[in-house]
Each structure stands twice: as C-alpha cells, then as structure tokens.
TrEMBL record:
Binds 1 Mg(2+) ion per monomer. This is dTDP-4-dehydrorhamnose reductase. NCBIfam families: rmlD. It comes from Rhizobium etli. Its EC number is 1.1.1.133. Belongs to the dTDP-4-dehydrorhamnose reductase family. It catalyses: dTDP-beta-L-rhamnose + NADP(+) = dTDP-4-dehydro-beta-L-rhamnose + NADPH + H(+).
Amino acid sequence: MRIAVTGKQGQVVQSLLRRGAETGLDISAVGRPEMDLSDPASVAAAFSALRADVIVSAAAYTAVDKAESEAELVFSVNAAGAGAVAEAAARIGVPVIHLSTDYVFSGDKASAYCEEDATGPISVYGRSKLAGEKAVAAANPNHVILRTAWVYSPFGNNFLKTMLRLAETRDHLRVVADQTGCPTSALDIADAILAIATRIITDPEPSLRGTFHLTGSGEASWADFAEEIFAELLKSGGRSVGVERIPTADYPTPAKRPANSRLNGDKLARTYGIRLPEWKQSMTIVMQDLVNKGL
C-alpha cells in the first residue's frame, strides 16, 4: 500500500511517517515547495507525478486565532486546497482520507456530537474546515472525512508540549476549565488512518465512505488535561506545577472556541471496528516518548 499525505511538518504527518518507518509502509509526505494548498495547480501537478493507492489530506491552516484576520488565506487552504487534493485523488482514481475538526460545531450541545448533528462553526477556522469538508465530498465520492479534536503528539506545537515548556519555569498555571473535549494522540490517529486506508482501497462498500468522528476515548477539560500532564511529569522526576481552574471569560482569545468539543465515535466503531484508546493511556505514552528524548 502506497500512501501520499499532504504536509511535511504537521503532527499527523509526522506520526504517519513514524508508523511508516516502523512498519515498512511506503508513505510519502507532499508539501512545500512542490505543493502549496493555496495554489490548486501545484496540488494537481504534485499528485499526478505520484503513484499512490490512497491520499491522506492532513495539511491545513491551523492557527485558529490568527485565522480571524486572514480569512481569505484560511479558506484558500482549508476549503479550496482541500477540494483540490480530493479532486487530484479522484483524477488518479484513488480514495482520499481528509482530516477535519470539532470546530465545525458550535459547542452548544449538552452531550457529545454525532456525525448527523447540525454544524454551526463559530470561528473563521471552523467555517473554513466545514467548507473543506463540503469541497472534499463534492470533488471525490470515494472519501472518508475524519473529524478529530485536541490533537497532541511528540511532534510540532500542541497543548501538551506547551504545558511541559511552561512547567520548566512556572510553579503555577491558570488553565481554562469550562471547555470540554477529547484529547487525541496523533499517533493513534495515524494508526486509525492506516487501518481505514487498508479497508477502503480494497472494499467498495458505500458505508465505509462518508464522515466519521475520531477522538481519544473519554473526556476532559483543558484544566483536567493539564493536571494529568503535570501528574505524569512529577512521576518522571519533573517539577511540581499547580493548576488554577479558570473560566473561558478569564482567558479571552480572538477566536471563539466551542465550549463542548466532545465527539461521539460510535459510528466509526460500528463501521470499522476502530475505537481509540482512553486519552490518559495515550497521553502517558507520548509523555514517556518526550521524557526519553529529554524534552
């Protein structure tokens, strides 16, 4: 199985490349300078030259707050760019697996969101990702859209690594406690993508296509997440860091965040038999990876 994935530095891209190195899978990362999602012509050219069995659309504009002042660029990448990737996959006759986000929802629901729930993004980033979902579906019927949330890993920039960096000099941190979601390891996402790819390149069953939710099992607030990070850090010989639980109102940002980012993963479990591990378990694995590297 030959997999081409958009982007080179993202958390999911790096996680897929690690899994490829571990298993011997042929995984190619395609990004700048040969491909720029804001330039559809470069997307088509990049993938026409590749021999791939499936394309993973993982690259995106993800600076959520900065997106509020760069809407045109954000939509060119997350909507038009995503559509161009799906169209390129359709042109060479292969499926596309596209990564989306919990930000397509408003966060007003009291329970975890299902795939059938009405969308209602409250930020430029969320609106661009929803437009990207629609563009992917329109460009290539042979698609799987995976909505995920609160992604962390040993790679790139993410909440877990930010907490560890701040813990080097801070004894106390204020962390939002009234936003709830499902922390998700990018390594777990990579494992799920590989399992899904294996199925869809050989099985034409229509129910395997469409939109699915893919997040770590369980739920947490950002403050819960931080407390678990610092508890694990302490076990590894790190410093003790206290967490003050604060409301979102005390930590204003340019972009609004959904208060409820929980995603229900039952559809993916029923269709593919995939349910990601409990988030604390996966977080411990990532923490150990970072500690072993001295990060």
